[in-house]
Amino acid sequence: MNLNRYDVVVIGSGPGGFTAAVRAAQIGAKVAIVEKSFVGGTCLNCGCISTKFLWQSLKTKQKIQKSYEYGFKATLEPVVFEDIVSRKNKNIVNIRKGMEIILSSYNISVLNGSASFKDKNTLIVLNNEKNEESEIYGDKIIIASGTKPSIVKDFIFDGNKIISSTDALNLREIPKNMLIIGGGVIGIEMATIFAGFSCQITLAECADSLLPNENSEISEEIRKNLSRQGVEVITACTNALDNISKYEKVLIVTGRTPNSTLGLNNLEINTIGKGFIETNEFCQTNIDNVYAVGDIAGKNLLACSAQNEGAAAAENAVKGNIVAVSNLVVPQVVFAIPQSSSVKVSDFSKYKNIIFGKFPFTANGRAFIENERAGFVKCAVDKLTEKPLAFWIIGAHSDEIVNTASQILKSGIKHISRETMFHPSLSESLLNAYEDAFGKCTEIAAKK
User: 112, 295, 364, 393: least buried by Cβ within 10 Å?
Assistant: First the structure.
């Protein structure tokens, strides 16, 4: 059995693994990626990118239907959902090819197969197609194996009646009706997409509200918007699976479980929770040459965090532990209609003298131009220092606006000034909400 040797071996090629491999190669390491499926991981192939393509397809459909508001007389042919899914898949292939070109440009070896630890430097790679095993040596190993959909007790994904988010993204036709179990981000996004394509949706959440960890005003606004779109939303629901016979499909999206079947016991790597790998601020495990990034490390299940951790872990693996990951400001987005996003400083709970400002998009000129007047920006400010602490945004393009909000919070600036905001723009609503906290917003009527 030949033993190929590398400076850095990365397990998984999703956002965290891909970034880690490229960054390690950029600083001179000989790198290999072990990937059991397709380059791009969950994010590209059955997660972020796939979901957003279907969401964008729905938005395009709605824009065509409302084109008369701009003086056009456009008609929409009946939607063939299979054509949309086929187009989605073609886009994924094209993006994947681009990623493969990047890996090749850095001479990164891509090994197809499932990896498991033999010891802290040696991985056994099983190529399932060829049923062959090989061993590779890594001076440093970065685990970026991601997660998979969690199952509910007594209900197993069969790909037909009981489906996962991966199955849902590859349906070739819209079901007549669907029960979605789980009112988190994935459940809300799936409900939005399939309801928009005329599937009768029931969305059940066991907590008292959708997105139970989100600001209550935002959660309630999302619930209202889903209801307006014909979605039946049931909260505080613990028996939704008792009567599934009346649904054509049952989509279970109650969380994700780490892909940790990597022979971790052979190394005695410390894990936490449901099997997530414990890491320090350098993304390092308790085994000195082994790092873990992204979903498998369980800090949060966001691609942006995975990319940040991947770059840091690569530099730490090659150069020594020099880059600490803080995740002080992490934006989050829900692709409902309209989108919802939020970001706040990590120590938000320590602030006691908080005041709030709010600015509706009905008062924003750009929102009128784009005919996207639903929603608002809400801002939390430290009353003593006037420092912005958090933003909650629900409305069109909030997924883009939140990046500006993140940079405002990350910079630690003491106040937001008007000259930093272009007019007319949706993002200037961040300033308007901030000013409203002090009663200084000139764009809304005086409060009685």
Answer: 112
